[in-house]
Structures are given as C-alpha cells and as structure tokens.
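Q: What would this complex look like in 3D?
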Amino acid sequence: MNKPPKIIIIGAGFGGISIAKSFINKKVAVLLIDENNYHNFQPLMYQIANGGLEPDSIAYPVRRIFRSNKNIYFRMAKVFNVAVSLKKINTSIGDFEYDYLVIATGSQTNFFNFEPVKEKLLTLKSIPDALNLRSYILQNLEKSLATQKLENQSQIMSIAIVGGGPAGIELAGALAEMRRYVLPKDFPELDLSNMYINLYEAAPKLLSVMSGEASAKSLEYLIALGVNVNLNAKVNTYDGTVLSLEDGTIYKTDTVIWTAGVKGAPIEGLAKEVIIGGNRISVNSYNQVLNTNNIFAIGDVASHISEQNPKGLPMLAPVAQQQGKRLAKNILNLINDVPMQPFVYKNNGSMATIGRKKAVVDLPNWKFQGTFAWLVWMFVHIMSLVGFKNKLIAFLDWMFNYFTYDKPLGLIIRPYKRK
Amino acid sequence: MNKPPKIIIIGAGFGGISIAKSFINKKVAVLLIDENNYHNFQPLMYQIANGGLEPDSIAYPVRRIFRSNKNIYFRMAKVFNVAVSLKKINTSIGDFEYDYLVIATGSQTNFFNFEPVKEKLLTLKSIPDALNLRSYILQNLEKSLATQKLENQSQIMSIAIVGGGPAGIELAGALAEMRRYVLPKDFPELDLSNMYINLYEAAPKLLSVMSGEASAKSLEYLIALGVNVNLNAKVNTYDGTVLSLEDGTIYKTDTVIWTAGVKGAPIEGLAKEVIIGGNRISVNSYNQVLNTNNIFAIGDVASHISEQNPKGLPMLAPVAQQQGKRLAKNILNLINDVPMQPFVYKNNGSMATIGRKKAVVDLPNWKFQGTFAWLVWMFVHIMSLVGFKNKLIAFLDWMFNYFTYDKPLGLIIRPYKRK
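A: Here is my prediction, written as structure tokens for the whole assembly.
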C-alpha cells in the first residue's frame, strides 16, 4: 500500500481550518501548523478589547477541533521559509517535507506611512493585542484620576482610532458604549465628557466595503453614540503624544489605535514575482501559486486577479472558507488525476455592528439596519463561534450584557506599557 | 461640620475588602489602595493554572464592588512606604494622608533556601503567575512532540511540585486529572505515561494544617490519581534542569512549581521591631501595630502572638475577613471614644479538594471526605465568589466540566519564557 500524500497547511485561521476539515478521513496525511495553538474568531476581537468577551469565548484549541481525526496532525511552530525545489518547509521545530503545500497565513497590519512610529500605536490583530488595548485604556482611566490638570486628563483618557472600516467602526462603537453605560458607574469621580473618542477616515465615507445605506447608517449610529467622526481626514504622523493630520490639524492623545489597513503575510522562500499588490501571493483560479504545481495559497494572503476582480477578492473570512473547501476537492482531484475546477466566490453578504440594536446588514438582495440587523448579526456570530461550549458561554455573556449593561469587567490582568 | 476621619486601607484582598465593606455608609472617608484593579479569589488560583476557570471567574474589579458607595474611594497604585510620624503614605501616584491606616498587604511567596534560584521556579500567587504556568505546561507538551528522545520528552513534560499544603495538593490533583482525562484526547501522539507529576513535602505528612483524616485521605486521593508523593523529602536546590533533594536524590525536570511557603508582605517604613517571625507585623489583640495607636494590620501580614497561638493565627482568608469586620467596629469605637474589643477568631473549619468527588472537609465537630465533601466544597466556593455574574459563569463552567471532562481548553495566549 502506498503512503498517503503529505499535505502541509500553514495557518489555522478561517482558510486553514476550512481546508483541513475538508480533508478529514480522506486518503491524505495533513500537517496543520500555526504559531498559536488556537484558532481565533477575528471578527469579534474588538469585544476582547472592551471586555465584552474573554479570550476563551472567541478562541478554540486547534487540537480540540481535530481531536478525533487520525489523518490531521497539528504542530505549534513558527514557519521560517519554504524551500520550493526541495518540497520542504523550515520551522522553529525542524524541517517538514510536503507533497502539497497550502499557504493560509492570512494578513498583518499595514501601517503605511506610520511604519516608523508603529511601536507607539495600538492594534487589534491578535488576542494579546486586544488584551493590551483593554489594559491600556483602563490604566489610563486610573492614571487620569491621579492627574490634576483637566487638559492632561483629557489627553490621557481620549482615544483616537485611525481607519473607518469594519474593525474601526465596531471598536469605536464598543468603546463609546463603554464610555456611556459602564464607565460613569465605575469612575464616578471622572468627568467623562473630557474623554473623546475620535475616528479618522481618509475616505469621504465610512465602511466603504459595504453599501451606501450601511455607510450612512453607521455614521449616524457613531454620531449618536458621541464618537467624533472625521471623514476625509488623512493622518500624517504621531509622536507618542500628538497626532497630526495632513491638513495641519493636531490632536493631543496618549492612545492611537491603528485599524487603517492590512496586507498579506506571505512566507519567505517564494519567487519574488509571486508577491503582488497588497503583499499578497498571486494565484490562478485554482488557488495555485504562480509557476508552481503543488503550492497553493488561500484566504487573505492569496490574490487572484481577474477582470471581475482587478484587485483580487476582498480579505474576508467567507472567501477563505470557501476557497479552503474548493481547494481540498481540487487537491484530491490532482492526486486522482481528475481536472481541477476553478474557484467561484459566492457572496452571501456582509454585516457590521456599532452597538446594541445598532447594526448594518447587506445581503445580496436586501439591505437593512437597526435592531433586527443587530439580532441577525448576534445570531450569525454566535452560530459561527467554534465549539458548543464557546457558543453557550458567549451567548450567556451577551444575554447578561444586554440585560444589565454590566459586562465589561475591566480587569487589568497584565498592565501594558506602551513604548 | 467636621470633615470625616480619613482611613487608608492598603490591599484589596480578603482583609481589605472585608474592612472596606464594613465602613460602607459610616461617617468615615475610606481610601482603598491596591496594585491591581481587582480583588481575586486566591483559593481557586490553581483552577486558572489548569484551565478549569478563566481569570474573570475568580477576579472582580474593586471599583465594581464599591460602585454605589460614596464614602469608599479606590486607587490603583503601588505603595512605597509609610511615614509614620507624618501620618502619610507615599505611592506611585503621590502622597496620601491618613488619620487611621490599615495594612492588609497579605503574603508573598517564601522561597526559603531556593531564594537564589527563584527565577527558575514557577509560582501560583497571582493570576499572571497562574496564566504563565498554564502556558508553560502546554508549551512543554507541544515541545515534547517535537523531541525525539523519550528521556528528553519525559524531562520536558514532567512536573515537580514542592510543598504538600493546600495549594500544592490541589494543584497536583488538578494537573493529574488533566493528564488522565484531557491530555490523552488532545495529545494522542504523546506517551503520557512518561509525564510524571511528583510532589515533594518536607514533613512526614501532607496537609499538616488539617486533621489526620484529611491528611491521610488526601494522600490516598493523590496516589489514586497517579501523583508520586514524596514525604520527608527536603529539596536542596534546582539548577533549571535537575532538582536535588537533601538526601542526594536527583530528578530531571524542566518544571518546578513552588508552593512550599509564604511570608508576610509588610510595607516599608514601620519600626524594625514591629516585624516578627514569618516577616509579619506584630499586632495586639485589637490588630493595632506595636507602639502605634492609629496603624493597624489584618490578615496574613498581621501576627498576634498569644498563649493559645504562639505563632499567631494561620494565614487564611476567614481570619482576614473576620479581623476586617472586627477592626472596622474598633476604629469606629476609637473615633467615638468607646473602648475597643479584642478580636476572637471563630474557626468554621477548612477544606481542600484534590479532584472530582475527591475533597476533604474538617468542620469543628465533623470531618468527612469524598463526594459529599466535594459537593460541599463546590457549593461553598461558588457562593464565595464575588458578584452574581461571576457565580453564574463559574457554576456553568464547572457543571459543564463535570459532565464532559472537557473544560481545560489549553489556550496559550501569551507564551511564557522561563529564565
């Protein structure tokens, strides 16, 4: 009997998990590798930052997902590079050979012109990031209490968010709700009218990935929650204290959260010409990496340029998941000498939530906003969380939250020191 | 109208919270200070280490506890010292004057002869400690998978616990249950019979603070769970790899958890003669610090030597809580020129749990062990957790845990690097 073909998947995000699941009980040996030992539900990361959810509600161990599957192996390791000619990857725990390689390494923060000052910014890309942000905001509220001058208090407490995409507006809304419903009870001595939440977006509208209705309504919701939304506001630099815009405006704040962009996070060792716009890996319609036959890329890190999608598909979880499912079938086809089928993205719609009863939903043929949108959003996200236990606890957390406005506990477990 | 007397309480542990609560709505202005912004339920710390509970289940923000009480103020700060003659304390956020000072700073780990190598040990005194321990154990299991030699695997996976008191046996039991019920499913590739859990206790019996029945039964439980219990085992040193005993025995392990003792954590600035055995502050029967009239100490950091208690009272939460309640009344008496009453400790019993259906309970007139003891233990601890939300979630976590043996998720959120 022949040994089953070895497939290595790098990355346990939405794409990596999706393709690995599709290989369960197939005649292949799958090695899934990630730096972390858990898969996390990135769309709810901002809920960790404001304390609405705890890490165990949005993260689930990869080993647990594939517990009963004998052909899926997991290793926690950092991948350094791929040696294409040797069909080998080099990692922090040694080398591994593959017959087929799937790169599902996702995206990383794109700091653009803020690259030189990135250490002074806070981000929301990982659970430790989100926990640091939570600690930092709470530490600053404590610090304000020990500060006499009102002007200084305001600088310490206020928060600037750069980027008006889904991550930025969801975070801005969550923080504004925290300021309105939670902080006055926990910090009665602070004058919270000095705590500003400022959102900066370079484009003339928010949420440009969604419909005009969703953009307009999310702006309305944020204004209602007291967020200062600055459109057409191009940020220039930040020195740790002063955030300056291109038009010369300056704003003093100790907290700048960067949600202004992401770029691909490809691995080292691929040919230069393979890395295209947005630092993504160029793939064909089968998600095959340019000029290779056994290396594939899916999700945020992959980009298939076509006439319909001159910039590639959007960097969204459903794209990665659908590509994972299709690619698993295609690799099995390849093994069995059956022609592969091109990937076709099915857009099921998108949504974002700004606060309680304040969400926007774009379905292919129906756009709606408000309480019902919020309920739909909540339902979809709870159902998407991995694992029964996670769903139950997250649901109870949220129910409790909804009825009492009492959730964000605000524990500073590990104080964060910004550079 | 006179200004109300200013009372400063240092420490938001069981003692500090208890006395602060007793001052609610009294004619005093209370400033409660702690390094952390939360109170934590220390007796369940080991449940954080094995992943049975998350931090938000055993920690609760101090501000939240006193949310609706106008005469209790909280500040998150580190106290550097007290200037007794000036009636002032110096902290990381400035100086504060007091009329009455209550020191409730608790205890710290006592490393005894291991002081020089303490950075190589893991401890269980704070939530970050417990989270580090959790990450470290899981990282080592991942590391074992990437290690070829069985001998090295065993050294990496195995765990030594020094100290057979409540903290040591509860942790040993929890880790042994994790090894038996959880790890075989998550790490089917690992031969877990090479993962040893060794407990070292210098005395001839475990749990010497409790009854003979409790000692004997806890030994029986640990052995049943596969823990290697070493009694009369005095540890000599640890070099990061080899743990050696005084009798010359050596044991190779990457993980040594130190639960062998605590000592008082007094603040600086008190007279030298006030610090007595166990690094505790000498107090009289009113918890008044020796040679002072407006400085008091309660809980682990305080020691009242008497004929009945030649070593002072045990360092236990109920002692601190009862002293806090009594001292609040005594300080009010002092303010109102009424004689103070001496503190009398009421021992309501003690308990420890080794695993599911395996607990030991000593009541003043009744000692029992086993399933009923475990249910009593569970009930008492759930009822003790601060805050309705915490109780509910902790209860659900535990119920789920009990029915499915499925809880400890094992998320390595922040990898820990031992020195």
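A: To summarize the key features: The two ends of chain A are 58 Å apart (CA to CA). The first strand of chain A starts at residue 6 and ends at 10.
Q: Very helpful, thank you.
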